[in-house]
What we know:
- The chain has 158 residues and is an alpha/beta fold.
- It has helices at residues 2-9, 31-40, 99-110, 140-152; strands at residues 13-18, 21-26, 46-54, 62-70, 75-83, 88-90, 113-115.
- The protein is built from four helices and seven strands.
- The strands form two sheets. The chain has a five-stranded mixed sheet. Strands 6-7 form a two-stranded parallel sheet.
Amino acid sequence: MIAKLKGMYGSGIEPLTYLGQNYMVVDRSLIPEILQVLRNEEQFDYCVDITAVHYPQREKQFDLVWVLYSYARNERIRVKTQIVDGESVASSVPIWATANWLEREVYDMFGIKFDGHPDMKRILLPEGWKGHPLRKDYSILKQDDEWVQINLGIESGQ
């Protein structure tokens, strides 16, 4: 499978294995096409999770990660890409319906937007919440205090 994808996309894909777990680092521009190929041609029919990791010291601050599973192959693979703060990525909701809430969670927690998502809004926190709590530069004490005072009219107790 990797040889086939490397043949199709060349240096845009870097296949790797870590502790027996397969993953590939993919150029951001190839993400929609690679995910579609994995779904349609390689039978990765279940999007288990979509998440991100924040590295504030890097130029491309975020790793965006799709965890996919193939029932037919009994195989799991991760697809990673790096993006700059403020960049968006094409939604994978048209490929896997399960991506809907997963992408909303990534938006809510990290602030990463998905182009073409049918309902890109917060899923865990209230609409008025400022910031994205899983970013390493997020101040939970300051944000909690502000939101609680404005919306509940009480001291946060932290």
